[in-house]
């Protein structure tokens, strides 16, 4: 298939030669390399999918694309030219990251395999025009490196994938997550996995999303920073928060097993302890924070909901009723009867309490609460250890 049209460009085409596959792999047209998202009519921009493994993707092209960045890192200009040193770095055998190990598999145009051993071409995810797409081009004839070259989409060339950086709450914009769906992210501070739900941005306030919270992201698992050993956080150790990855820089005092739990009613009371209570692991397998600690502990880019936002969430769930309580505890929101800690365990398995960011007065703060028949907000003393959920808006 050799026409510059949807007849060839929008067909799944792949090729390999039995004699060269072990050395050079397979060749793919752009439609196949982009898992059907790059079509004849895709005339600009970068497509979102590829045949790469999960967590990997095709490199991008263009002035600031991945191929240009790699070319610059290895001595090129990012725009391409004959350069023996840069070329040898791309094609040299891989050694400790200093060489790319790019071979020269050639390409296939229709039924003809061409330039094996002298030319290498690798698709990017970036379109050039309706019938062409960008790729990296290496040619042995003049030791050429062209990181922003382009060719017809029906041509079969090679594919190399690059790994996506891990998606964390700190480096993932809420606005980039799919609406009305749950996504998996991690907390960069200790690599714990969390689920996050993004409210829709369309529809009716109070029906399709809480009033004033269109497009908000809400954690659907209680914050557990400090609960496990991993990353830079050790169970039952003080939490040292930095502005690079936390809502604010501070130190949160650990109270192992509740030992020394302070009853000071002020914002300066910043303490936490770990669950779970024996026999209630399903509800209390997270950390509990005083009001002052809760204001600091969300990941960077996230914060506690305000009282008004929690009231809007409660209304959205069905209000102060058994229906509201049931809805907030069901998928995808999954709030739990975590109870609270205040010199001892209280109401684990029958009561949920989550700090908001809103003060009532100097010694008390507002929180979300629910039992099996009730859902709403009220206030209490700041020394209580409650659960935490965070929200993001961008």
Describe the sheet with the most strands.
4 strands, antiparallel
The helix content is 10-25%
Distance between the termini: 45 Å
| Average of the residue pLDDT scores | 92
Large-scale geometry: elongated
Number of strands: 23
Structural class: alpha+beta
* Cα Rg: 27 Å
Question: How much beta, percentage-wise?
Answer: 25-35%
Low-confidence stretches: none
Instruction: Figure out the total of helices.
Output: 9
In which order are the strands of the major sheet placed?
A: 4-9-8-7
Features:
394 residues; alpha+beta; four-stranded antiparallel beta sheet; 23 strands; elongated
Q: What is the topology?
A:
Elements: H1 6-9, E1 14-15, H2 21-24, E2 27-28, H3 30-33, E3 56-57, H4 66-73, E4 81-82, H5 84-91, E5 107-109, E6 112-114, E7 119-127, E8 132-139, E9 144-152, E10 162-163, E11 182-187, E12 192-198, E13 217-219, E14 239-241, E15 250-254, E16 271-274, H6 281-284, E17 287-289, H7 291-294, H8 307-317, H9 322-329, E18 340-341, E19 345-346, E20 352-361, E21 364-371, E22 374-381, E23 391-392
Parallel strand pairs: 15-16
Antiparallel strand pairs: 1-2, 3-10, 4-9, 5-6, 7-8, 8-9, 11-12, 12-13, 13-23, 14-15, 16-17, 18-19, 20-21, 21-22
Helix pairs in contact: 8-9
């Amino acid at each position: 298939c050799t026409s510059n049209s949807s007849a060839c460009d929008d067909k799944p085409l792949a090729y390999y030669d039995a004699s060269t596959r072990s050395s050079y792999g397979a060749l793919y047209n752009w439609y196949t390399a982009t898992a059907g998202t790059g079509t004849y009519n895709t005339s600009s921009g970068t497509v979102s999918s590829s045949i790469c493994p999960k967590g990997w993707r095709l490199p991008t092209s263009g002035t600031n694309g991945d191929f240009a960045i790699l070319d610059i890192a290895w001595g090129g200009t990012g725009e391409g030219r004959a350069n023996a040193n840069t070329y040898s770095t791309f094609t040299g055998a891989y050694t400790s990251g200093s060489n790319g190990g790019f071979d020269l598999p050639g390409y296939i145009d229709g039924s003809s395999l061409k330039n094996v051993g002298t030319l290498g071409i690798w698709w990017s995810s970036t379109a050039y025009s309706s019938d062409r797409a960008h790729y990296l081009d290496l040619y042995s004839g003049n030791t050429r490196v062209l990181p922003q070259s382009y060719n017809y989409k029906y041509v079969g060339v090679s594919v190399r994938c690059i790994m996506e950086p891990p998606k964390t709450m700190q480096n993932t914009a809420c606005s980039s997550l799919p609406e009305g769906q749950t996504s998996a992210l991690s907390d960069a501070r200790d690599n714990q996995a969390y689920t996050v739900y993004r409210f829709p941005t369309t529809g009716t306030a109070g029906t399709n999303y809480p009033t004033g919270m269109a497009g908000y992201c809400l954690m659907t698992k209680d914050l557990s920073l400090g609960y496990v050993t991993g990353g830079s956080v050790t169970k039952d150790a003080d939490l040292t928060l930095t502005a690079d990855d936390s809502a604010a820089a501070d130190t949160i005092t650990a109270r192992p097993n509740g030992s020394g739990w302070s009853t000071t009613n002020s914002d300066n009371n910043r303490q936490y302890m770990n669950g779970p209570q024996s026999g209630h692991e399903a509800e209390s397998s997270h950390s509990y924070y005083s009001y002052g600690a809760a204001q600091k502990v969300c990941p960077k880019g996230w914060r506690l909901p305000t009282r008004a936002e929690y009231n809007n969430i409660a209304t959205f769930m069905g209000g102060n009723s058994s229906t509201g309580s049931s809805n907030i505890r069901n998928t995808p929101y999954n709030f739990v009867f975590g109870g609270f800690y205040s010199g001892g365990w209280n109401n684990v398995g029958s009561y949920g309490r989550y700090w908001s960011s809103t003060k009532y007065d100097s010694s008390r703060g507002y929180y979300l609460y629910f039992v099996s028949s009730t859902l709403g907000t009220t206030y209490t003393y700041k020394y209580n250890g409650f659960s935490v959920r965070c929200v993001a808006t961008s």
